[in-house]
Design goal:
The chain has 178 residues and is an alpha/beta fold. It has 8 helices and 7 strands; from the N terminus they run E-H-E-H-E-H-E-E-E-H-E-H-H-H-H. The strands form 2 sheets. A 5-stranded mixed β-sheet has the order 2-1-3-4-7, with helices on both faces.
Length: 178
């Protein structure tokens, strides 16, 4: 059983998680986040730790951002959009058990002392911004690094705040150029 409690958006996400591994979940019910739900998350955060595993879409990112501000030591797990899409729907409930296990194997934690290892220049040099395929490249590299897809600005924040090393980054870039 996973030590931390997974924070997901809905009931079907919990069903998908249960197919992948033995873990406890708390469902946010979308962005409504009722006070009793926040209390449950707070309790889990203090007692066992939490991992935020929201859908790889705009709503999921807003929920993740809100929860991360409130629970800064939460783990962050990302299922790549490609692996969470089926039947014209995007969400954790669409992900295979293997994709969920892979995301949880790459959990990242926010660094309290943000580093400035990476800059906008890195994004430009490695075609992660300012090129026609930049979004696709960020998606692939984000999946390899376990930091998920993000626009260029947020991708840079994640590189610097989630403990990604230069070596990990260059390895991920090399893997996408094969």
């Amino acid at each position: 059983m996973l030590r931390e409690v997974l924070v997901v958006e809905g009931k079907m996400d919990t069903v998908a998680i249960k197919k992948a591994l033995d873990a406890e979940t708390i469902e946010t019910g979308g962005f409504t986040l009722a006070p009793y739900t926040l209390k449950k998350i707070q309790s889990a955060y203090e007692k066992r730790g939490i991992i935020i595993l929201t859908d790889p879409d705009g709503a999921g990112e807003r929920i993740r951002k809100f929860l991360t501000k409130r629970f800064p030591k939460a783990g962050q797990a990302f299922v790549p959009k490609l692996d969470a899409t089926a039947n014209n729907d995007v969400g954790i409930e669409q992900a295979s058990p293997e994709a969920i296990r892979q995301a949880l194997a790459k959990v990242r934690f926010h660094e309290f002392e943000p580093r400035f290892e990476f800059s906008n220049r890195d994004l430009f040099v490695y075609s992660l911004s300012g090129s026609a395929d930049a979004a696709e490249r960020r998606d692939k590299i984000g999946a390899i690094l376990g930091i998920g897809y993000a626009n260029a600005k947020q991708f840079l924040v994640r590189l610097n705040n989630y403990g990604v090393t230069r070596e990990e980054f260059l390895s991920a870039v090399a893997q996408t150029e094969v």
